[in-house]
Amino acid sequence: MLFKKYITLKKDEEPENSEVKEVAQEQPENNQPAPEPVETVTCKICKKELDKKRVVKNKYVCYECGYYFRVRVKNRIKMVADQGSFEPWEEDLKTGNPLNFPEYEEKVAATQEKTGLNEGVTVGKCTIYGEETVLGVIDARFMMGSMGHVVGEKITRAVERATELKLPVILFCCSGGARMQEGIISLMQMAKTSAAIKRHSDAGLLYVPVLTDPTTGGVTASFAMLGDIILAEPKALIGFAGARVIENTIGQKLPEGFQRAEFQLEHGFVDAIVERDQLKKTLYQILKMHKPRTGYANFDPLHEDDNYEPTELMKERSVKSKPLDAWDKVTAARQMKRLASVDYMDAIFDDFMELHGDRYFRDDPAIVGGIAYLDGQPVTVIGVHKGKDLKDCAHRNYGMPSPEGYRKALRLMKQAEKFGRPIITFVNTSGAYPGTEAEENGQGEAIARNLYEMSGIKVPILCLMIGEGGSGGALALAVGNEVWMMENATYSILSPEGFASILWKDGKRAKEAAGVMKITAQDLKELHVVEDVIPEYGGADEDALVSIANYMKGNMKKFLKAQNGKSGEQLAQERYDRFRIF
Questions:
Q1: Measured between alpha carbons, how far is 407 from 362 in angstroms, rounded to an integer?
Q2: pLDDT tens sequence across 139-182
Q3: Terminus-to-terminus CA distance in the chain, angstroms?
Q4: 9-35 exposure pattern, b = at least 16 Cβ within 10 A, e = fewer
Q5: For residues 224 and 178, is the Cβ–Cβ distance under 8 A?
Q6: DSSP notation for 456-507
Q7: Sign of CA dihedral 138, 143, 144, 150
Q8: How far apart, in whole angstroms, are the C-alpha atoms of residue 443 and residue 195?
Q9: Interatomic CA distance for residues 199 and 108, integer angstroms
Q10: Cα–chain center distance at 25
Q11: 427: closest CA among 374, 377, 348, 490?
């Protein structure tokens, strides 16, 4: 005997974009109670029936194909805010009908009745693992999260209040764009919300939008893309004009994956794509790293007595190693097996979070940058990365940055300035990429802009030349208060081959050129181009990494302690004076 039972999901637990299915179960014999029916939902992508409890436990992600269901506002708050900490704001605002659009008020009322929401966005204050923040969540069920005047007003008031309270803002975006029924009044919300975020930013406060599926139209063209750090969920649709608008307007068919989060990451508009089960932890890490601090040496007391001396093995290797001549150092600096910026980042810093993109065109993989801790002190770390093998080298363009790489680096440095974080760069490049696309995208302007802006940045900048320092492409990341150099690194106006070709019309005299160009660390220290020479303890390899990293780390901490008490203007003036003497 079969019986059927309709499953009723709790309104706040039912995933969006799903179908609730009725399930049939066989009646047990001997009149035993029937087992509880399995509540199911159907995935939009793989079409499989899923156990609702498993979907909820999996943060509303399909456990068969990985599809991300849209999340209702109460569930989103449960997922990221500490239990019971959310305090809603601005719940009494009423939606009007500014254009007297036919049946609009009835549509709003029906949506309010269906969703239990007063409008498309919910704002308020909460804590995330104890860190206080203002939180906003747009719910797609309310007229596709479209931005009407109340949505814009609630977001603006929340940002203004956050500015008054000196709190960060996290805003989950999910919207089809402007609300058509409100016409030009909806358009005005783009300017209003953006202006509020500008004032919040000018107050030195953190804003993190999280882009979910979909984030489009006027929301993308305003508050969704104005974050200090922009996060996205996997495969979220993110774009200004949607596929239907593009195809209907200009007849252009879009390729697979166009405007998805991964596309936006590759093209420089998103800092990171974060899996939903890691989102709360990631937001907490970002909030913690951006807490106000005084000074540049907020080190964990547990690390104050750490030993930064080289290992005995490295001391022995260093004594036995033979000094290299200039050409030997050119060769050593070019070795693929040479320790890379990412090796030092991993060995020296804790909790490194890579941030991507220049916000204009692309994410250049030749530049790796982000935020991390130096024994408890938040820092911004940027490095040129040549690659670890041939495939990686090709992906990273052999460490030759493009304009978008320099612009990414500058974006991260300006972000560091805003939040009072010291900047540490690791430079290893044969030079800026000389290809046609680099010229088309403004290579010279990008390098010049870095020199211009770095000269005036009002936080300490420490630059380390760890391999090749090739011409302006290297200098664009080396305008520091101090510049240090590995003992077998090089730093020059151009390659010895280029020098010999230009001056002597004979590139085969490169070895001779290396000897007269004064490109070694020892030469450059005598010329006061660098302040310190970093020992390599017999070779920059994995065995030496611990000792080299310890030397760097100990001296970085000394450098930052020496900057404590200096104003931003003083730091910029000292940097100006450093280069003014040449």
A1: 10
A2: 999 999 999 999 999 999 999 999 999 999 999 999 999 999 99
A3: 94
A4: eeeebbbbbbebbeeeeeeeeeeeeee
A5: no
A6: T-SS-EEEEEEEEEEHHHHHTT---SEEEEETT-EEESS-HHHHHHHHHS-G
A7: negative
A8: 32
A9: 31
A10: 49
A11: 490
State mean pLDDT over 179-195. 97
Q: Is 280 exposed, middle or buried (0-12, 13-18, 19+ CB in 10 A)?
A: middle
The structure tokens 């990365």 sit at: 385
Residue 251 identity: G
User: What does the H/E/C string look like for 25-92?
Assistant: EECCHHHCCCCCCCCEEECCCCCCEEEHHHHHHCCCECCCCCCECCCCHHHHHHHHCCCCCCEEECCC
CA distance 429 to 358: 19
What's the CA angle centered on 32, arms 30 and 34, to 5 degrees? 130
Structure-model confidence comparison of residues 211 and 337, the more confident one: 211
- For residue 346 the two structure tokens come to 């991993």
Condensed to tens digits (0 to 9), the pLDDT of residues 480-491 reads 999 999 999 999
Residue 23: φ, ψ to 5°: -120, 150
The confidence score (pLDDT) of residue 541 equals 81
Amino acid at 164: E
As given in the structure block, the two tokens for residue 439 are 């010229």
Q: Among 423, 407, 408, 409, which residue's Cα sits nearest to residue 457?
A: 423
The residue among 364, 172, 406 whose CA lies nearest residue 268 is: 364
What distance in Å separates the CA atoms of residue 567 and residue 97, rounded to the nearest whole number? 52
Helix (H, G, I), strand (E, B) or coil at 231: strand
